[in-house]
Amino acid sequence: MLQNIRDHSQGWIAKSIIGFIVAIMAGTGFYNIYEGSRSQPNAATVNGDKISQDELRQAIDMQRRQLAQQMGKDFDPAMLDENLLHESALKGLIDRRLLLQSADKAKFVFSDAALDQVILQTPEFQQDGKFNADRFDAVIRSLGYTRMQFRQMYAQEMLISQLRAGLANSGFVTDAEVLSFARLEKQTRDFASLTLKPDLKAAKVTDDEVKAYYDQHAKEFMTPEQVVIDYVQLKKADFFSQVSVKDEDLQEAYKKEISGLVEQRRASHILIAVNNKVSDAQAKSKIEETQARLAKGENFAALAKELSQDPGSSGNGGDLGFAGKGVYDPAFENALYALKPGEVSAPVKTSFGWHLIKLTAVEAPKVPTFDSLKEKLTHELKAAQVEQLFVEQTKKLEDSAYQASDLAQPAQDLKLKVLTSAPFGRDGGEGILANRAVIQAAFSPEVLESNANSSAIELDPETVIVLRDKEHRKPTQLTQDSVAANIRDQLIKDHAAAAVKARGEAVLADLRSGKLPAKQAVDGQTWQALEAVTRNQDGVDPNVLQSVFRMPRPASADKPEFTGISQRDGSYVLARLNGVNDGAAPTEQEKTSYRSFLSSRSGQQDFAAYRKQLQVGADIKRN
Fold it and tell me: Which of 46, 56, 133, 337 is most exposed by smallest CB count within 10 Å?
């Protein structure tokens, strides 16, 4: 995987747009600059490295959001064990820190250029197959990151991936292990199943049982913890009415705009790359052979498809499209601008290898009128002023909020309105309440317990807010009457499931003893037979399939094996294993596939053992 990333990061055209992603990343968000300065104990230290409470809160919040997404509408924050959530998040942070320390000790690195390339090629950040800055911002905002925070996190993930790959790819297996696995993997089984359904109507639940269940599980019946926040917000768009643009500035901006318009040239090329397998002399010889073929009348595009080693253009006959100056390697550009349309250059050497370059078209710059650009230029000039004003006002808001005991004074200082949210819990709500940074700040000790204003929170590049908790609604006990119906429904399901399980186990005992004929119907339900079922058979319940493949091989055709499986829906499945069929010997291709899988699994086990070793040898202090 890492080599693949390196390969892609060396692409011919890719490097010409790296500067774009660097510029995108340069625009950092507003950090919670006061947050880190407030005195608070660390969550843990790992070999002397500190894990802050902020990091822990962020990790807990991430786990909570992941659970909410996985469970969907069934998610109930009140059912979460906060202690377990805290422990799980802290353990994950400690493991991550150990791995990063190990990667650093092993001198693993992941360059900024490679990171830029990975981000550029990430499908989630693309629109119509190309990197889109707005989409990138939207995705990372939904995760609660600023650009620089996300960049740092992503770089760390790449380092950990290098470490994991180094260990995971070192696993190996013997031929005997491959053959043993193949024998089990290609095995099929003949079995029959019969399902006993729970009878909900027959299950009876008393009021005393409902009360007993309520008393025993009282902690589960709590209202969710919620807060209501007051907040003030700065929106960049609101400042446009406060700035103006002079006519002379517009004229100057227009001159600059049209001065940047240059001739566009459309080029095609054939690249013979120089790498660890092909020397410079070999590449030059190959490009000269190609030049000779062109001289004999062969088609440039056809040769590019056949020979060019630029994956981005070879499939299009070497076509690179239109571009102006400053895009290509200087040697490539000089050769291109020395050509006339239709001409092909002599061999040209760049840092990528040897090229033949063909100029296919020249497009003169189209100069727009001042009136056609006036609106755009006005917006750009205003935007520059607004950006500066927005930064100044954000700093002013942060200073005022830090010094004030409520939001009234900051609102007055900056002529803002104090807004109030709807109640929301740790799983968030709608609008700004879905923003992870807002949720984290609202439930932070500084805001929730110390009743302080938050630092400035960047919702998006256009909006900053400061909040404080207006109301803290702690979990309260729900009455028995309000949850009695739900408890009764659950107890009915539990009783019915227990009854059908008892019935199923009795039938299973009779089947195993021979008291009940193997193929006889049970309670009106008949056996459903399947033959030559594989381990990954479609249309078969996974729990049943897994249980069938764990059963021992029948002693003979007339002595089947039996088992019983309790299902999540309360039903009970009886399974009868009639026979086991050994598969054919694996082909060489299958052996290769099995070996790859087993090696990967072995490598993953090695990685897990390595993590355990790091934990055992580390100096870890939890606070």
Answer: 337
Q: Locate the domains of the chain by residue range.
A: 2-168, 187-222+479-581, 226-246+371-473, 262-363
Q: Helix, strand, or coil here: 357?
A: strand
Handedness of CA 126, 130, 131, 135 (dihedral sign): negative
Predicted TM-score of the model (pTM): 0.52
Burial class (CB in 10 A: 0-12, 13-18, 19+), 435: buried
Q: Is the pLDDT of residue 33 over 60?
A: no
DSSP code of residue 296: T
Q: Write out 389-426 in H/E/C secondary structure.
A: HHHHHHHHHHHHHHHCCCCHHHHHHHCCCCEECCCEEC
Report which DSSP code applies to 144.
T
pLDDT single digits (tens) 414-454: 999 999 999 999 889 999 999 988 998 999 999 999 999 99
Cβ 30 vs Cβ 149: under 8 Å: no
Look at the block and give the residue holding tokens 């802290």: 90
C-alpha–C-alpha distance, residues 15 and 589, integer Å: 38
Give the strands of the sheet with 572-581, arranged side by side: 528-533, 188-196, 572-581, 561-566
Fold equal for 2-168 and 226-246+371-473: no
- CA distances (Å), 262 to each of 337, 362, 477, 536, in order? 12, 11, 72, 61
Q: Which two tokens stand for residue 118?
A: 């990975």
Q: Which fold has domain 262-363?
A: Chitinase A; domain 3 (3.10.50)
- Distance from C-alpha of 105 to C-alpha of 163, rounded to nearest angstrom: 11
Q: Which residues pair with 576 in a beta bridge?
A: 192, 562
Nearest CA-CA partner of 61 in 410, 435, 355: 435
Q: What are phi and psi of 194, to 5 degrees?
A: -140, 130
Tell me: pLDDT of 19 over 70.
Answer: no
Q: Could you report the per-residue pLDDT of 366-425, keeping only the tens digit for each? A: 888 899 889 989 998 998 899 889 989 999 999 999 999 999 999 999 999 999 999 999
pLDDT digits (tens, 9 = 90+) for 480-508: 999 999 999 999 999 999 999 999 999 99
Backbone angles phi, psi at 470, to 5 degrees: -90, -35
Paired tokens of 485:
């119906």
Which residues lie below 8 Å from residue 180, measured CB to CB, with a gap of 6+? none
- CA 434 vs CA 193, 424, 443, 459, 471: distances in Å: 47, 9, 13, 10, 18
pLDDT tens per residue across span 304-318: 999 999 988 999 999
Report the CATH fold assignment for 2-168: Triger factor/SurA peptide-binding fold (1.10.4030)
Could you tell me if 393 and 292 are in contact, meaning their C-beta atoms sit under 8 angstroms apart?
no
Which stretch of DSSP H or E encloses residue 436?
helix 436-442
Q: Which of 144-158, 263-277, 454-468 has the lowest mean pLDDT?
A: 144-158
